């Protein structure tokens, strides 16, 4: 029964391109393993929160990427559990002598590799890579200073929407507020893998494979993803993007353009000897247990490569090379500041010419100038999206589809649907218990205090637990909750009445546990109980518990039993052990903005009538 509940509860995982049974498939799964395409509105409420119109009036400022900083990188592996190599390394450019022939593309390929490996947490690998590399430098990354966290892919989709002439594809971006101002733009695709179209012969993936080689300890790696931070006209951006290749380190730019076979034999020989040693070791680098988490394993391998070495590769047939659309393709380089672009031209897979361009070339600068209007609109749209998400303080999704795009030039935002992530089939329907005469009154007895905690504002989710040591961390780093000496409710001031308070304003958190520890909202409960009980040399016997639930959840059930038309609600259930049922709280939104139409005073009254306990 526990498997059925878990599968029902996490049904959305498989629907996002992963597998809810048997772990992750290999990096080259069979065609039969490919799921059907998802619909654009999957898991969304039918009623949009708000509709955003394309910016029509924008500033005349020159949009440039400033203060670029490389902050993280990783490669995916084909391990059964999602695993990344940090910092990883892109494939290294071979600079082969032309011409050479490659086979046509075949087999399953990724549309969204991260969405395939971690469909429920598309930005988790980004955050872990950045945090790990920051910690390795003896530092910590301050996410609270960031305005937008996104994949480059999301920025390009927004640009196409802004420039749409009626030919842009439908798209969706799942949005989320992190903290007070940081907006997460989660990539969403109808499919995470695909097969090549048999009607068209393409050679791009084969060209990449035949024109590069793997770095030591990254032989089994795929999909190098790099994360940079930069300023976009006042917006602090963290952007992840995939890198096709890089110039070999330790090789001058002039040498890298010469033919490897004749002029770079020593460098290539040394690299290949390193590969031989690595492969001879058999197993390769081991998983770093200390850095790994329940969701994601970490392998420490690869090496940081300079931004100046990155290459974006594109292939075109000889007939189509002259029609290369720089207005469409240049933003890919600009938004990631990829410095090198290689356009490889072929005749039925025989590559005869490679045109190498640099981001700073005069030709590229002219294209950038032509696109300034689009970049200004993108900057304005990002700010509008940020303001909307901060105002509503909740998870949502931005989407554009053919029914609305040409008529209104707008993008709609939707909040989570109550069925989001659930299987469409119902396990069983529970009826309201019928009232029975003569039954004894229900009472609550044997009340025992077993734990408590306060949330405090820290970069990492942190709770304050009574009587705990100075620092106490969980085994799983991403769920670590540092605890300090004293935890206590706010203290009643017993002020003389009357006294005046101001109307509530700003946003307030509806469900702090779910916001701070979204994947495991019950974790702080268990940590607090275990910590408090251990102070008295006791241990909590969870096997003797029937239900673990929040008061909010019990009240929802009570309304359902009493009211003829109660509000819709959802409770995620899970069996722990043989009999303990855990009720996970689910809310449509994590944050709520004060409604200026109907002023409230409750939160202001609490603040003015109480004070924080000493040390809090």
Automatic annotation (TrEMBL):
Residues 11-32, 395-415 are annotated as: Disordered. This is Uncharacterized protein. Residues 12-21 have a biased composition (Gly residues). It comes from the Eukaryota. Residues 402-415 have a biased composition (Basic residues). Residues 22-32 have a biased composition (Low complexity). The lineage of its organism: Eukaryota, Fungi, Dikarya, Basidiomycota, Agaricomycotina.
